[in-house]
Design a protein that fits this description.
By secondary structure, the protein is an alpha/beta fold. It is about 40% helix and about 15% strand.
Length: about 350
């Protein structure tokens, strides 16, 4: 006998602050994709669901219809329309984010200033609601104090990794302080922590304990969906070719591949295959891009695609001889899973 959970048995509220802050029309990163996957799963279930968004000008609360609207806008942002009056005040800092915040305000069932967040949640959320944060955004004492206004509420936080603490040499200088503050909040307030691998679970628990408290946790690996068969087409790159996927920043170690291709090119014993690098510009990598775009093999045996969506990545992987993934450090690393898929 199979028991089916009744709608509203497991009320949840998903924090979508990261998704909206990333803005409209941008290729999602690994953490972005995890947040969107949780959003889609919650929409697929029959439970009562809400969404919470921290904008530059306060907080927004969404119901299921609003969550569906955010998911649709991420898939296709072409019809979002004009900015509202509030977004026009902040558009210079980030037009793509301003556009998504305009859309989110249209979908919201409630709005509040930061100081009134607790009252907003208390007014709209049912007792026993579970707050879920899977995007490393909006993890602040204010958020959890506001949540405590809702009777019997609980919280679940997904920690993808703590690379700014375990490998600070590969992260932005300010990332270490941000990760430390996030860890302190999670350690103090979270009722449960989700870890994506056994390895990150062990590391995360060590740092949580150092922060004062290690909440109960589970390991729930991220996954990838089945590729659409329409995407399994032959790309236009000369065979054989290999592919590297990921945001181009020091941690990904893509410069090693340029070294490797130069070594193969200089060897008379090996045929030089094609290298396809698919990834957006990251931080602190100007020397790499100068070297890449000025390389004698660039656009001949070495190609760079700076914006590839999921369908394009699937097509590139389907035609490649192999994925090259020389990253120095990863919490999980979705490209190898995609390649195996």
């Amino acid at each position: 006998m199979t028991l089916r959970a009744k709608p509203r048995d497991n009320p949840r509220i998903l924090d979508l602050s990261r998704t909206v802050a990333r803005g409209a029309g941008r290729i999602p990163t690994g953490i972005d994709r995890a947040e969107l996957a949780y959003l889609q799963e919650m929409l697929n279930r029959g439970d009562l669901v809400f969404g919470l968004i921290r904008t530059r000008l306060g907080f927004l609360l969404l119901d299921r219809s609003g969550l569906s609207g955010i998911a649709a806008a991420v898939r296709d942002s072409s019809g979002l329309g004009e900015l509202d009056r509030l977004s026009k005040l902040t558009r210079r800092r980030d037009p793509a984010r301003a556009q998504m915040e305009t859309h989110a305000r249209k979908l919201a069932i409630g709005r509040s200033t930061p100081a009134r967040l607790g009252a907003l949640l208390e007014q709209h959320l049912p007792a026993g609601v579970e707050y879920m944060n899977v995007g490393h955004s909006n993890l602040t004492p204010r958020m959890f104090r506001a949540l405590s206004r809702v009777s019997a509420s609980k919280s679940t936080v997904l920690l993808h990794d703590l690379l700014p603490l375990t490998h600070p040499q590969f992260c932005r200088p300010e990332s270490e302080d941000k990760a430390t503050r996030m860890l302190q909040v999670v350690s103090r307030y979270a009722d449960r922590v989700v870890h994506t691998t056994s390895s990150t679970c062990s590391s995360n628990k060590t740092y949580l304990a150092k922060a004062g408290r290690c909440p109960p946790g589970i390991v729930a690996p991220l996954g990838v969906g089945r590729p659409r068969t329409t995407c399994l087409r032959s790309p236009s790159f000369q065979d054989p070719y290999f592919i590297a996927i990921g945001t181009l920043e020091p941690r990904k170690n893509i410069g090693f591949l340029l070294d490797l291709w130069e070594a193969i090119d200089q060897s008379s014993e090996a045929e030089l295959p094609t290298l396809v690098i698919a990834g957006a510009r990251g931080w602190e990598y100007p020397a790499f891009f100068t070297r890449l775009t000025g390389h004698t093999l660039f656009e001949n045996k070495i190609h760079w695609i700076d914006a590839a969506d999921d369908d394009q990545v699937t097509a590139l992987l389907s035609g490649a001889r192999g994925l090259l993934f020389p990253s120095h450090a990863e919490g999980l690393g979705l490209p190898p899973l995609e390649a195996a898929r």
